[in-house]
């Protein structure tokens, strides 16, 4: 699926943009996880044989929580990422949303292939008139990749990222880097 297909297929009434995996909430979450990992490692050294499996499983869970590659705004349409901070909420019939839809409708022609895993630090959450989450578009500007709320890649042309970067920055996102 391309961003053009994605954007035109969404029945939404408003969008909330989110910034995640950055800022004070992110720093505190990382510090807490690092502390828990260190404590679990110490427990592993002194654990009795019957406790080893439980301590190893706990350590593995902590490592997965700390894995940036799999940090999306939501898990499906369920809980939000703990570090997510809403930045802007925009109604469907606004110039900003019209500009976003024009950006997403750029035809997919060329794609860049980076050798890194995506770190989704920005997201667009689409809601209906009953305030129900319809869809999420997770965005990684570092490796130029997008995924929906289920982790399915949404393909887009490389020219979309600079325009989307500028659009989010104008809304108040502190997107790293520049185009």
Task: Compose a concise summary of this entry.
By secondary structure, this protein is of the alpha+beta class. Helix content is 37%, strand content 17%. The chain has 5 helices and 5 strands; from the N terminus they run H-E-H-H-E-H-E-E-E-H.
Q: Unreliable runs, pLDDT <50, ≥5 residues?
A: none
Average residue pLDDT: 85
- Tell me the number of strands: 5
Fraction in helix: 25-40%
Fold and architecture overview:
Helix 2 (23-46) runs antiparallel to helix 3 and helix 4 packs antiparallel against helix 5 (160-171). With 179 residues, the chain is α+β, with helices and mostly antiparallel strands. The mean pLDDT is 85. Helices cover 37% and strands 17% of the residues. The protein has a five-stranded antiparallel β-sheet, with no helix packed on it.
Q: What are the key terms here?
A:
179 residues; alpha+beta
What is the element layout, followed by pairings?
Layout: H1 3-8, E1 14-19, H2 23-46, H3 52-65, E2 85-91, H4 95-104, E3 122-127, E4 133-140, E5 145-148, H5 160-171
Antiparallel strand pairs: 1-2, 1-3, 3-4, 4-5
Helix pairs in contact: 2-3, 4-5
């Amino acid at each position: 699926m391309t961003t053009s297909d994605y954007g035109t297929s969404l029945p939404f009434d408003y969008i909330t943009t989110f910034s995640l995996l950055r800022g004070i909430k992110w720093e505190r979450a990382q510090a807490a996880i690092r502390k828990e990992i260190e404590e679990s490692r110490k427990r592993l050294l002194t654990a009795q044989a019957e406790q080893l499996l439980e301590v190893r499983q706990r350590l593995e869970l902590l490592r997965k929580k700390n894995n940036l590659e799999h940090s999306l705004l939501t898990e499906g349409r369920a809980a939000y990422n703990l570090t997510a901070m809403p930045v802007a909420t925009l109604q469907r019939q606004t110039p900003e949303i019209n500009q976003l839809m024009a950006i997403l409708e750029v035809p997919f022609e060329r794609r860049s292939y980076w050798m890194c895993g995506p770190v989704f630090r920005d997201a667009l959450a689409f809601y209906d008139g009953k305030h129900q989450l319809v869809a999420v578009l997770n965005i990684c500007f570092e490796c130029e990749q997008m995924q929906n709320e289920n982790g399915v890649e949404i393909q887009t042309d490389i020219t979309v990222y600079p325009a989307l970067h500028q659009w989010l920055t104008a809304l108040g996102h502190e997107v790293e880097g520049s185009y």
